[in-house]
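Need residues for this backbone.
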């Protein structure tokens, strides 16, 4: 019987990367209850369809494979981070919520190790294919939502109920009209944007790794290869544009520029980098020409804007909470604690919809887990980036994974979804696991 199970697991290896990635865009969930009256996203208990996918992944990968990474510094840093999260529940205002979030964190860390183990088995290219494929699908869904100005009836897959006239739906105003921002199956356009940036970097990997002909036209095979990658790049770029997330626009530009600079400095990838640059300039020009009337209202940024002003207020709140609670207030407890102690009200945030988490991953983490939690997280990332620096030379796969992680960490400077929203959390721990797997045992580029 054991032989049959192991044999079946071996045959399932090809599908594991696809299941691993499917867990992220699949936002289907059931609300089981909450710790506060009414519905509050950050203080509620959910059962996600992706939970069953993760459990299946843990079983398929197996305990024996997991033990390979348990004697490394990274593992013990993660265990210390998890331990601190659990301990925070004993002093939290809502201890039940903190322990529930700790259980979720355990699931995320396990997911991180699954990704690392699969990456070490040289299945990382399948991850890139899966990210790009799901990215194209999500971009198309976002485009259709933008055209129809409403949801597509995909609630079963996690799509939100969308209506530009609803106060709960994110939109922009262009020429006096309310325009729906693209969501895909994610709970917010910013989260979709973060996923699409990862998908775009994955397509860069496949573009750059191909042979680099010295002539403009070498064969029909190369031309079809160009087209097979250019069209998905255009679709995903369109999806990023239609999220109307200024943060994602800036991060996309920054990460893309970084990859192009690395490619130009590399003898092996110079010609393909040059061709990629021409393609991206053409895509950007086409999108701006076609969407100028929608992009122009979002092109400027002012402190007087509500979204900017609120982010600044939330940062002030975080600094205040950290000063008064350097040991933290408990995992998942920031919003409840700030409401209970009147911290929101002191800043003039008196309406319920304004009671949102701090829009900065690092400040929010420090507020809930204390200075020690932030230090452990910094050590985790520091250990990872040291590995990346040592193994990145000429390693296109590693550069791609590092760019994906960097893009998410940049999103963390301006939003909270990597810490508070399940799909955002999965993205972050996936990227950490991918980089850890690639650089624990250097893979060929």
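Answer:
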């Amino acid at each position: 019987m054991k032989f049959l199970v192991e044999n079946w697991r071996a045959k399932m290896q090809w599908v594991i990367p696809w299941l691993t990635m499917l867990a992220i865009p699949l936002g289907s969930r059931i609300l089981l209850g909450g710790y506060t009256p009414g519905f509050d996203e950050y203080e509620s208990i959910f059962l996600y369809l992706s939970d069953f996918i993760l459990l299946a992944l843990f079983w398929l990968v197996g305990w024996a494979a997991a033990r390979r990474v348990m004697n490394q510094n990274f593992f013990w840093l993660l265990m210390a981070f998890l331990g601190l999260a659990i301990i925070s529940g004993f002093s939290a205002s809502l201890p039940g919520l903190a322990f529930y979030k700790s259980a979720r964190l355990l699931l995320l860390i396990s997911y991180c190790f699954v990704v690392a183990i699969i990456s070490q088995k040289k299945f990382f290219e399948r991850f890139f294919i899966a990210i790009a494929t799901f990215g194209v699908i999500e971009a198309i869904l976002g485009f259709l939502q933008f055209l129809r100005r409403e949801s597509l009836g995909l609630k079963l897959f996690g799509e939100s109920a969308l209506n530009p006239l609803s106060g709960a739906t994110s939109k922009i105003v262009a020429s006096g009209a309310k325009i729906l921002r693209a969501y895909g199956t994610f709970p917010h356009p910013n989260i979709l944007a973060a996923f699409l940036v990862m998908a775009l970097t994955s397509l860069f990997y496949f573009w750059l790794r191909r042979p680099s002909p010295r002539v403009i036209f070498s064969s029909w095979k190369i031309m079809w290869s160009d087209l097979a990658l250019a069209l998905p790049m255009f679709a995903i770029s369109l999806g990023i544009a239609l999220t109307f997330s200024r943060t994602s626009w800036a991060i996309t530009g920054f990460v893309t520029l970084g990859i192009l600079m690395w490619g130009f400095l590399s003898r092996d990838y110079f010609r393909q980098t040059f061709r990629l640059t021409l393609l991206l300039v053409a895509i950007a020009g086409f999108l701006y020409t076609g969407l100028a009337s929608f992009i122009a209202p979002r092109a400027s940024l002012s402190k007087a804007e509500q979204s900017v002003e609120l982010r600044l207020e939330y940062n002030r709140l975080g600094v205040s909470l950290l000063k008064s609670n350097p040991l933290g207030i408990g995992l998942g407890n920031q919003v409840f604690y700030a409401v209970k102690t009147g911290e929101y009200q002191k800043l003039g945030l008196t309406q319920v919809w304004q009671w949102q988490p701090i829009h900065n991953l690092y400040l929010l983490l420090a507020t809930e887990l204390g200075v020690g939690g932030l230090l452990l997280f910094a050590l985790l990332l520091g250990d990872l980036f040291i590995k990346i620096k040592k193994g990145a030379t000429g390693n296109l796969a590693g550069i791609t994974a590092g760019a994906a992680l960097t893009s998410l960490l940049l999103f963390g400077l301006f939003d909270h979804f990597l810490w508070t929203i399940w799909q955002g959390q999965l993205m972050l721990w996936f990227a950490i696991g991918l980089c850890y797997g690639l650089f624990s045992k250097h893979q060929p580029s």
